[in-house]
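SEVERITY: medium
COMPONENT: batch folding queue
REPORTER: lab tech (J.R.)

DESCRIPTION
The queue accepted two submissions in a row. Attaching both inputs and their returned structure tokens so the on-call engineer can compare them side by side.

ATTACHMENT 1
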Amino acid sequence: METLLEVKDLHVHFPTPDGVVKAVDGLSFSVRRRETFGIVGESGSGKSVTNLTALGLIDRKAARVSGEVLFKGRDLLSLSKEELRRVRGKELAMIFQDPFACLHPFYRVGDQIVEAILCHDNVSKRQAEQRAIDLLGAVGIPRPQDRFRDYPHQYSGGMRQRAMIAMALSHNPDLLIADEPTTALDVTVQAQILELIDRIKNEFNVGVILITHDLGVVADVAQSVMVMYAGRAVELGTRDEVFENPQHPYTWGLLESIPHIDQKGSRLIPIEGSPPSLIHVPPGCSFHPRCPHRFEPCDKEVPALVDRGSGHLDACHLSVEDKERIWNEREARRTKAVS
């Protein structure tokens, strides 16, 4: 499959009076067409900043940005504001976290989608209106011809998110970035939105970046998963590799801190401590103050993100044998607790 986006050694630092915030600190990954690429991590790990930088929505006067963000061979970081405007929304679109904040309360939903269409396409207003109605129907809005004229407050939370997806699809983009699209939605609507994004990926032949802090979300729809911590990638692989054979202690902690259907009545295992300040990132492995398996190199040497075989990458000083032993022991304890 065609590679749509390739991020190479991306750094995004924000100078502040208290010090430099290292929001993204040497990130590399790629996304292919018709692939859902999940980015997982706690709040403040750099997930959203990475993609806002790719879209040109980070104030370059307030941030120090280096590296490359290649979209279909073009480095987005080298484009002018006008060139970025021609790409953003047309070839590269984003579904933001809070649709109610993104939709203007004083304008009808349909008119806002029409405005997005007319921004890039040389069509009549009537043609744009019909396309907006068709898109609302395509994303599952009932009676789209009538709901076209409703205001955002007349839509439910799930319908507002569907309207944002319709707006993002208005120009048949090549890559769709979904920034926590199921936040604040109930479980049933969340499943519907994820199913819709998965269907759109195939019907519209697009690549999808799915940003979330919920491993259950990426387990449903992602083909590849990148786990981020303190502005860096700590694990990168296929969904099956990350969920069935995780290689980083932080990933182990994430997997053990979520409920499983076979663990009824058992206690969840939280990750001790708190995420570090991005101004004062710990030396060596940034996760080492919270890691129960740390040893001498962890607090001095930054582990490189390396391939342990078959394209499964992780950034940890533990040997492959030690990881396998520790993970098997943890799984055995979990199984014993359940039984």
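ATTACHMENT 2
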Amino acid sequence: MIQVANLHKSFRTQEVLKGVNLELATGKITTIVGTSGCGKTVLLRHLNALLRPDKGSVLIDGVDITRLPQKELYQMRGKFGVLFQGAALLDSMTVYDNVAFPLREKTKTPESAIKKKVDERLDQVGLGEMGGKFPAELSGGMKKRAGLARALIMDPEIVLFDEPTTGLDPVLATSIHQLIARTHDTFGFTGVLVSHTIPQVFDISDYVAMLANGVIEEISPPKNFCASQNPVVQQFIQGKTEGPLDVL
């Protein structure tokens, strides 16, 4: 479903992506790992063209989205749901209205049908009684759940998760991982998850991709990834400061 080819991206003099090549399997969860500041979120934002590359391509179902005009790109983005790092809920809206927002903005769905779908998504993420609350009244974990409900409201084919457990304690982080796994089983989307929560995130991943030094060093199933003889992968897994991996 998603193919990244020779992707380059620089910000002024800092070269972040130096020729990324990556294929993401349809209907699977692929987790992108790497050190802080290595470009994981930059790569993620190229997948739905929130950023444009300096060179290279991003193909979604065979279509290079880096070359699409704005109208067609907007339609392509309809395939995506995104759970942002901070959930990105609108503070002035209730949880219910936050989740309903994409349906109201992008479709002509009747309010009765919107209510049915929003209630269903809130139930699926364990927030069935929280629709009337405002984001400020929610815990960090609840905000992530509300963000996930909104990401799923349009029945996306692809869901991007930008460090979904940032700021959560280990228990809450595990609950969010389990929720991602359950919703993936229910909806069957292609998931791309950026995370530094290792090895816990491996439990819900079909594949793990290591971004280091501007390229994908390795991509493989979690068991194979952990057993890799690649010194960059082993340095990262073991948390060592000395080795071939650039440590910022």
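NOTES FROM REPORTER
The first helix runs from residue 40 to 47.
No errors were logged for either attachment.
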